Task: structure prediction
Amino acid sequence: MRLTPFDLVFRPASQEVFPEIRVALQQGAHDPRDRDRFLMLREVVTLLRELRPEQGLGEGIDQLAALLHHAYLYWDADEPTFEVPLNLVTTTPVPSEGQSVDPAPAYYAVMPEHRIWAEVIPGQPSEPLDGCFVHSSPDGTLRVLGVFGIHRDRQGFSVVEAAGPRPVGLARADGSRLFETTLAGGRAAGLFSISGVEELLELGWRIQVRVGSRELGTESSQATFSSSRLPAPRS
Result:
C-alpha cells in the first residue's frame, strides 16, 4: 500500500490533536461533517496555524482547511482505505434494484498509480491522481478531495475539491468520452484524464457506489470547485 497524504501530513496530529477535536465536537453535539462548525473549533484553528507554511498560502488556506477536514473524518471513521480498479473510469456503476448504498462514513480511495491525470493548475503540467478522500455531507451530497502529484522527491502535493449531487447527463463539450485522456500519446500509454470539476465529482460518486455495494475491498448538476498546490507544512 502506498503512503497516503494522511500518513505524510497528519499522522502526528492524529495521535495528539484529533482526539481533542473529537471531544470538542462531542461536547458541542456537533455533526463532524459540518465544515463551518468544524473550522470554528479552537483546536482546529490552532492546528491550521501550525500546518501553514511560513510563507503562507494565500487562497490556498481554503484547500488546507478542506484537507484537514477530510483527514479528520477519515481518522474518525478508523481510516478505511480502498484500492480502486482502473475500470471504474470506463464503466458507470449504479446500485442494483433494491440495493441500498451504505458506504463507510469517510474513506480514502487509492487510485491506480500514474494512470489518471488532470491539469490541476491552469497552464501547468498535468499531475497524476494519487487518490481521493470521500465523505457525504449532512445534506446528502458528496465531497470529493482529489490528491494529485505525490512524489517522494516533491515537497507537498496538489488538491482539488468537488462537492455536490451526482452530475446528471454529464458529457464533454468535444464529444469525447468521460475520462478519456487529454495527454499527447496518452491513449497508447493506457492513460486517462479528469477534465473539469464535474468529472472529479462523477468519479467520486462511482467510487461511492462501489464502496457502498461492497465491491471494493478495504486495506486497513451543481458542483463547487477549488484547487491549490500545497507546499509541505512545517514540521
Notes: Residues 22 and 46 are 15 Å apart (CA to CA). The mean pLDDT is 84.
